[in-house]
Amino acid sequence: MAREKVKPCGVLASGDVGRWDSESDVVIVGLGGAGACAAIAAAESGAETLVLERASAGGGTTEVSDGMMYIGGGTSLQQACGFEDSPEEMFKFLMASVGPEPDEERIRAFCEGGPAHYDWLVAQGVPFEAEFYAGRMLSPEQQGLTYSGNELVHPFPDLAVPAPRAHMAACTGPTGAFLMQKLLERALALGVRIQPDTRAETLVCAPDGRVVGVYARQTGRDQYLRARRGVVLCAGGFINNQEMVCQFAPSLMKAQYHAATDGDDGRGIRMGMGAGGAAVRMHTGQITLPFYPPKGLMRGVFVNAQAQRFIAEDAYQGTMGEVCLLEQHGRVWLILDDEIFERRAYAEPEIAGVGESIEELEAEVGFPEGALQFTIEAYNRDARRGEDRLFHKGAEYLKPLETPPFAAFDMSWDKIPYAVFTLGGLRTNARAEVLSVDGIRIPGLYAAGRTAASISSPGYASGTSVGEATFFGRVAGFSAAGGGA
Ligand SMILES: Cc1cc2nc3c(=O)[nH]c(=O)nc-3n(C[C@H](O)[C@H](O)[C@H](O)COP(=O)(O)OP(=O)(O)OC[C@H]3O[C@@H](n4cnc5c(N)ncnc54)[C@H](O)[C@@H]3O)c2cc1C
Q1: Which class is 1-289+419-485 in CATH?
Q2: In whole angstroms, what is the distance from residue 193 CA to residue 293 CA?
Q3: Which among 29, 357, 417, 437 could disulfide-bond with 278, CB atoms 3.0 to 4.6 Å apart, if both were Cys?
Q4: Residue in 465, 468, 474 to alter for ligand 1 test, most ligand atoms within 8 A of Cβ
Q5: What is the DSSP letter of 387?
Q6: CATH 3.50.50.60 domain locations along the chain
Q7: Which of 37, 54, 61, 71 best tests ligand 1's pocket when mutated (most atoms within 8 Å of CB)?
């Protein structure tokens, strides 16, 4: 099927704007986590601030999220829970884990600014309790601090001192909704003007290329909104724009669950591209294979279509999703014995086969003859000695599979809803200024959240999206209020 090619939306020349419907210092597009923090920061800096939101209220994907925020470098919560972290160790971990050509400048800013960002969130009215959760992944109702990425997984403990960095606010209901409620209350208290049901369409540029406003549609009416100091794009990513995914990130097409609200249609990114902003790392996404909790399933063995192991099973479920979908073509199985079999997995996987022996299981699933037997024999031999010479799975999760019956969960892409959202977006610097392909600043234009390319693309840890949306949203608000460098 021929698909429409995605083009950047053009810009409107300021000379063609007959009238401005409103004027403010800073105009922000989108009122999720990034937009709310940008609005608060701009207003705190004394800027008259207007936020345009296409939905009838603010919240975005941040509101429906689990509200986990990856922040570190030695926050007060990390200290209160008894953990030492430093910007340097966090920097070492991120630089080693986020894939090729990491964005050193922004990663450095994110690590060095972590403790102050945490304090800023607390000052906005977001409370935290000093509780450490030792399991894998907090549920939306839990709170405190936990490990959420590959900090404890080989080879990272040898490269950086591990520390838990996933922060969740203290509340009784879902954390994402609570976080947004607190941020929106604060924005309103600071006098931020919020214009709902308003969909930003294009940027308005002066003859010298400076972004000076936004053209939007509000319930069928044209709106021309002037920004005296700057425009901040915080309109989410593009996972719900099929043409864009097909063009920029076709390998994400197989993931069936889109972890984003309808607003993730790529408009914000395209608006920025129209003004000359570069879109980078557009092929990347956060792909989750939700195979735990329960964390006991990490004692099983993941195999591909050739019945070979390909990863340490204690890897973060985002890494697992990425490797299974992109490197193993989404054809993977989890092998268990009776001792560790549990059915209450998040994703309720199908049982592809059961056998009284590995040989029987191998035949039932249809693996090449002898292949699964070879893999499990080798794994068991190592596990009995408490080691995993192939992938260095942690000792806590090493156990020989020798108690019949044996089972295989089908974890393939068409059997389990792999969850995905996009990580590519506009190229920005540590001040959240949008940059062109040549690295030149687009004057008056800022971006944050999923509209900007993530610092973790790929190599994500849970909480990075809301963590960096709030962090760089706040930076963007301050920068825009200052009128840009
Ligand atoms: C179930 C679930 C759980 C998740 N849990 C976590 C988690 O715990 N931690 C984590 O880090 N990530 C999590 N994520 C991902 C994370 O929530 C998002 O990636 C993140 O919140 C994006 O923040 P944002 O501010 O960039 O976008 P959003 O919060 O989506 O805000 C963007 C806003 O812009 C608006 N908008 C879009 N286009 C326009 C336009 N043209 N004009 C005006 N307004 C527009 C949208 O309506 C929206 O309100 C989860 C996602 C899901 C679905």
Answers
A1: alpha beta
A2: 42
A3: 437
A4: 465
A5: -
A6: 1-289+419-485
A7: 61
